[in-house]
Design brief:
By secondary structure, the protein is α+β, with helices and mostly antiparallel strands. It is built from 25 helices and 28 strands.
Length: 766
């Protein structure tokens, strides 16, 4: 019998050892929580905080980033011998047993931080058996990890009520602070919560109990010499009234875009939350204005040009079901209208053309894979010979298509592809044809902003970035720095866009900026993109269902929004222009031909060129005085055809005279009218330059725009007095010539000889 008892006892011991060895096993990975998905802006502000499967919110932080005052508060409150015991505090157990036995019920516990960590990781019933398992697991944890690792795990996993787990989460939600800014009192309040998170809820009714527990923690910290007596008494006060806060939901369209591909963890996004909130407000402020034109939605993307980081992305005016606000307009594929033209013109500059090159804006039909193609300008007018600068500034469709036909749509297709502006490469260049430059490829607002940022960056393309990874990218070279600089100068030229846009941008823009607009067919989409050296701003206006707006162009729709955004980004103005390049030179050209001027050229301007690409040909449009233009046949024929149709003046952009009373004296010659309006004028004095009724198109940002004032006198006079708008301008003797600096507007130029007789002409400067 005795032997049997011994055998049974041995079996029981072996069974117990094996059993408890099995049930008390610990896996280190189990101790680490599955991370929440948290998105922060570039300054650490939370944009979205997605809880785990249990509905708990926690933010992992290393022990090095948890201040000692917080560590000491929890150690003092829960386990002041933490650094001296092996995971189980025997002295605390004995004390608890004695107290509980004396009182006849449980009044004190003896769980160490390690035991609490075990209980959090492997929840069990509160029985003696389960307590034993917990004790064994605690010993195992102490063998696997050092004290710092255990403390780090505990402080990141300790429950603090309201589904908040860990000290960082508690600090952010309860106090709106980072851990390093918590006071001793706030640290003690966090350490008070694990005792009874539900009962001591900071949002609950038992605030007095929470304060009492918090003050008890502070006294323990003083006893353990973690805080001084003065600190103790300075912290023994109540706690501020804490109200439940809604969890952040910033930049919703941006987060919804990145959420499916992010996974779990903490992510630092490129978003500037302060700017994001302001842009959302700006869009809402334009809601009524846009609605009057049947446009119910708008989107904005702002990039940091340095590395294409998205600072703000607003996908809709309101993030709600109303008006389909859950849709993200910044990621929707839309027809970009004319916003692709700058990429063709930049390619042309790198191909050998220049800003003074005279292009064709003539009605033409082209044979394409889709059949006969007849492009038409936005305003239905044609302007004949047009310098590249003005063709781009006024967004002339016919000129752009003609240029694309010269460069080749296959070559331009590859350029767009390298800028990530082709979303359906399987279709190939033939699918888009010559309409590629006026909006055939569908793109997103984010893609468009990224492509324009490449121009601002000097021709280097970097795709839009959603997250900060600390890596810089030089990008992919698409254009030369010189071509990018000149293209930017063209897009920044107010006078170059006057014909189409008038003074809208010149009057409203707070400072000079490179910009381009676009309008899709039937006014379905209105676009505007502007950029400075620092930022690229892209705006879309329209309807998610594709319904047209009421005749609202990209300039009208997005222009006021752009102005408000610029004032937000640069409240004190902006005076840092794009850096000038050594590889770009300025040279004089004839305004009409784009060639080097000769002595007969009536209007000379300065233009930018890539070094070595300045025009070498001498102007052959002007070979004699008298205001005559010798035009190439295609322009002379076109002008004659247009004039006979009764639309004289629609070709004014290139600088040719509006008045064609004397026309086509020879096959290819256009004469300007020299008839004088003033019958009382002295016939002996006649102004030769400028010509009455002349219109000049000038770059208002250039100081070199001058014309020669010239007068002919049939009688010898010793002096001619020139007047501009009734004010004396200059007194000159023979040959009576002087220079006049152009200024925008309508002007009266008068030349007066002896006896106050003379001649007068009227000109307009645009």
């Amino acid at each position: 019998m005795c032997r049997l008892i011994k055998v049974l006892l041995l079996v029981a011991i072996i069974f117990s050892v094996v059993h408890f060895e099995s049930v008390s096993r610990v896996a280190v990975l189990d101790l680490y929580p599955e991370p929440n998905t948290i998105f922060e802006d570039r300054s650490g502000n939370i944009l979205r905080w997605i809880p785990d499967a249990k509905g708990e919110r926690h933010i992992w932080t290393s022990l090095d980033d948890i201040p000692l005052v917080i560590q000491n508060a929890f150690i003092s409150a829960e386990d002041h011998r933490f650094y001296s015991h092996p995971g189980v505090d025997v002295l605390a157990i004995l004390r608890a047993v004695k107290s509980n036995f004396t009182e006849g019920h449980i009044v004190s516990g003896a769980s160490t931080l390690t035991q609490q960590l075990s209980r959090i990781t492997y929840p069990r019933k509160r029985t003696y058996y389960d307590k034993l398992v917990e004790l064994l697991r605690s010993l195992r944890i102490e063998l696997l990890l050092d004290k710092e690792q255990i403390l780090e795990l505990y402080l990141n996993r300790v429950p603090l009520g309201n589904n908040l787990v860990g000290v960082k989460a508690g600090s952010k939600v309860y106090f709106g602070k980072i851990l390093s800014r918590l006071t001793h009192s706030e640290a003690a309040m966090l350490a008070a919560l694990p005792k009874a998170p539900g009962k001591l809820n900071p949002y609950g009714r038992n605030i007095s109990s929470l304060i009492e527990r918090k003050n008890w923690v502070l006294r323990k910290m003083n006893t353990n010499e973690h805080i001084s007596f003065d600190m103790l008494h300075g912290s023994l006060q109540g706690i501020p009234v804490l109200k439940p806060k809604s969890f952040p939901f910033g930049a919703p369209h941006f987060i919804n875009k990145v959420l499916p591909v992010s996974g779990n963890g903490n992510f630092t996004t490129t978003i500037d939350l302060k700017l994001q909130n302001r842009i959302e407000q700006i869009l809402k402020s334009h809601q009524f204005r846009l609605k009057r034109k049947a446009a119910r939605q708008a989107s904005v993307v702002i990039l940091d040009n340095k590395n294409s980081e998205i600072l703000s992305l607003v996908g809709a005016i309101e993030y709600s079901k109303r008006h389909q606000g859950f849709n993200n307009g910044a990621s929707a594929l839309r027809s970009p209208g004319s916003t692709l033209k700058p990429f063709l013109f930049a390619q042309a500059l790198d191909s050998g053309l220049n800003t003074a090159t005279v292009l064709e804006d003539i009605e033409k039909k082209y044979t394409s894979p889709q059949g006969i193609y007849r492009p038409v300008n936005f305003n239905k007018n044609s302007y004949g010979p047009v310098p590249m600068r003005h063709a781009l500034g006024n967004s002339l469709n016919q000129t752009a298509v003609s240029l694309l036909n010269t460069i080749g749509y296959s070559s331009f297709y590859e350029t767009l592809k390298s800028l990530d502006l082709i979303n359906f490469p399987q279709r190939g260049p033939e699918h888009y044809g010559l309409g590629m430059v006026i909006g055939n490829p569908e793109i997103t607002l984010v893609q468009l902003a990224s492509a324009y940022a490449a121009l601002a960056r000097g021709g280097s393309f970097i795709p839009a970035k959603y997250f900060i990874n600390g890596k810089s990218s030089k990008g992919t070279r698409i254009y030369s720095e010189e071509a990018s600089y000149i293209l930017t100068d063209m897009l920044s030229d107010p006078s170059a866009r006057n014909l189409t846009f008038g003074d809208f941008f010149n009057q409203k823009l707070p400072f000079k900026i490179a910009l381009k607009t676009g309008t899709s067919t039937n006014y379905r989409d209105g676009w505007i993109v502007g950029y400075t050296p620092k930022h690229t701003i892209a705006i879309w206006v329209g309807n998610f269902n594709g319904q047209p707006t009421t005749g609202m162009s990209g300039a009208e729709a997005g222009g006021p929004v752009l102005v408000d955004i610029l004032n937000e980004l640069y409240p004190n103005g902006f005076s840092s222009p794009f850096s000038k390049l050594e590889g770009v030179v300025s040279s004089e050209v004839c305004s009409y031909s784009g060639m080097r001027p000769n002595k007969f050229c009536p209007h000379i301007k300065r233009e930018l060129f890539i070094t070595g690409m300045e025009p070498e040909e001498i102007c052959d449009y002007h070979n004699e005085s008298g205001g005559m233009h010798n035009l190439p046949p295609q322009f002379a024929t076109w002008l004659h055809g247009r004039y006979k149709k009764g639309v004289a003046g629609n070709y004014r952009l290139a600088g040719f005279s509006r008045n064609l009373e004397e026309t086509f004296k020879t096959e290819n010659r256009i004469y300007r009218n020299t008839e004088k309006r003033h019958e009382s004028a002295d016939p002996s004095i006649q102004i030769m330059s400028p010509v009455n009724g002349e219109i000049y198109i000038m770059d208002l940002n250039e100081g070199a725009y001058q014309i020669e004032l010239d007068v002919s006198s049939s009688l010898p006079v010793h002096e001619i007095i020139w007047y501009v708008d009734g004010r004396e301008y200059d007194k000159v003797g023979p040959p009576y010539k002087t220079k006049w600096r152009l200024s925008r507007g309508k002007h009266t130029i008068t030349a007066v000889g002896p006896g106050h007789s003379g001649d007068s002409v009227e000109v307009e400067i645009r």
